[in-house]
UniProtKB/TrEMBL annotation:
Belongs to the class-III pyridoxal-phosphate-dependent aminotransferase family. The keyword Oxidoreductase does not apply. Keywords: Aminotransferase, Pyridoxal phosphate, Transferase. This is Aspartate aminotransferase family protein.
Length: 449
């Protein structure tokens, strides 16, 4: 069958990607039979691997019963059970679960709930949501106002109220030791300074990715940072929102990444790995007191048609059960530790790798011109696209971003499904090794010209 002219792609793409045929476990095949190892779980989505038979079975069972029941007409078992399960995994007190279809919707829901809570408790002057730069919180206008990535946000600036930002704690760029408490304090105190500069009584919330995603490339906060952020928010009556859209669901070695520091937010959001690509699903999980305030004041002025879709929730529930049954969080921690040590060995061999970071199976490396100065590669090399394309040709899928603003920086997320084994780690490292060698050859040819 010949491929029709594309009419659903809205991006400039340098080449059309092959047509996907099938996906099983950590592998995907195109229609020509070429196999790819899904080294980034799509966009850090397919946490339990592709085509899991138990998840497909649960979805089929639900499909035979009902695929849609509008939330104002019916409650559904999958939504009820998934909400209870999610609340049981979330921090103490965060037991109210609001279902949505993706990460941006979850972030929108969180900031709107926070705002309605402020009005309900007589603090209507609070509306600013501080976030970090760089960060990614979604592309709808509310979430985009929080996203710290100017190229995405700038064209829409007149249409939204851009929110205050503080720098993300990229200690490796500032030559600071992330294991030193003073480093954590240095970056966390920027939040307090920003709150004071903005007027504390106008600040509603602070939103943070506990372990960074695409924006910072798996940035792990420096020692003491998360705890101090929590303290600062509490001191000024500001809600702390954890964006666990990418880090939630187990891939960092804990169900929620913030468990690494035992810090509880007031609201958290989750998506991507929640239903692991089997269905569009996300959730906002809020503290019961916040929800009670909003309900007492008349209820949440917000909701999406597909909220709590029974098929999506059946998929989500089966995914969470699969993670528990197969001990996938433990495996993410163990296999992630192996993969990280292998990436560090690659860094020993390739001086263009400037940094290796992350937790569990949310890992990244950054390419630089010079490791000592962390000077990025020349923008014209287009490294973030080139290396991805080379790896793709070699049958390895990785995910990249360039987010060091004006001075650019190329990082690559290595985040295979949580079912990955030591053999898969070997395959990923072999693919990266080959791809980096070919990338370097290409650069030297370009420079020779
Ligand atoms: N927050 C974070 C941390 C994310 O990584 C993403 C997606 N990359 C989003 C929000 C937005 O999610 P979605 O693309 O599902 O709207």
């Amino acid at each position: 069958m010949s491929r029709p002219e594309t009419s659903h792609l809205f991006y400039q793409s340098r080449q059309r990607r092959p047509m996907l045929d099938q996906a099983r476990g950590v592998y995907m095949w195109d229609v020509d039979g070429k196999r790819y190892l899904d080294g980034s779980s799509g966009a850090m989505v397919c946490n339990i691997g592709h085509s899991n038979p138990r998840v497909l079975g649960a979805m089929r069972k639900q499909m035979d019963k009902a695929t849609f029941g509008y939330r104002l007409h019916f409650e559904t078992e999958p939504a009820e059970f998934l909400a209870a399960k999610t609340a049981s995994l979330a921090p103490e007190g965060l037991d109210k679960v609001f279902f949505v279809s993706g990460g941006s919707e979850a972030v929108e829901s969180a900031i709107k709930l926070a705002r309605q809570n402020a009005i309900a408790i007589g603090e209507a002057g609070r509306y600013k949501v501080i976030s970090r730069d760089p960060s990614y919180h979604g592309c709808t206008l509310g979430a985009l106002a929080l996203t710290g990535y100017a190229p995405l946000a700038d064209p829409f600036e007149p249409m939204m109220r851009v929110m205050p930002k503080i720098p993300a704690p990229r200690a490796y760029l500032d030559g600071l030791d992330p294991d030193d408490e003073a480093t954590g304090r240095h970056y966390a105190d920027m939040l307090e300074q920003k709150i004071l500069a903005e007027d504390p009584e106008t600040v509603l919330a602070f939103i943070v990715e506990p372990i960074g995603g695409a924006s910072t490339g798996a940035l792990v906060p420096p020692r003491g940072y998360m705890r101090r952020i929590r303290e600062i928010c509490s001191r000024y009556g500001i809600l702390l929102i954890h964006d666990e859209v990418m880090s939630g669901g187990g891939r960092t070695g804990r169900f929620f990444a913030a468990e690494h520091w035992d810090v509880d937010p007031d609201i958290l959001v989750i998506s991507k790995g929640f239903a692991a690509g089997y269905a569009p699903l996300g959730a906002m999980v809020a503290h019961k007191d916040i929800v009670a305030n909003v309900l007492d004041a008349g209820g949440f002025l917000h909701g999406f048609t597909y909220a709590g879709n029974p098929l999506a929730c059946a998929a989500g529930l089966a995914v969470v059960e699969e993670i528990e049954r197969e001990g996938l969080i433990r495996n993410a921690a163990d296999t992630g530790a192996l993969l990280k040590s292998e990436l560090n060995k690659l860094m020993d061999r390739y001086s263009i790798i400037g940094d290796v970071r992350g937790e569990g199976l949310l890992l990244a490396f950054e390419l630089v011109e010079d490791r000592a100065t962390q000077q990025p590669l020349a923008k014209e090399l287009n490294a973030f696209n080139e290396l991805v394309d080379i790896a793709y040709e070699n049958g390895l899928i990785i995910y990249s971003r360039r987010t060091r603003g004006g001075h650019s920086g190329d990082h690559f997320l290595i985040a295979p499904p949580m079912i990955s084994t030591a053999d898969h780690v070997g395959e990923i490292i072999e693919g990266l090794d080959l791809s980096l060698r070919q990338f370097l050859d290409r650069i030297s040819q370009q420079r020779a010209r």
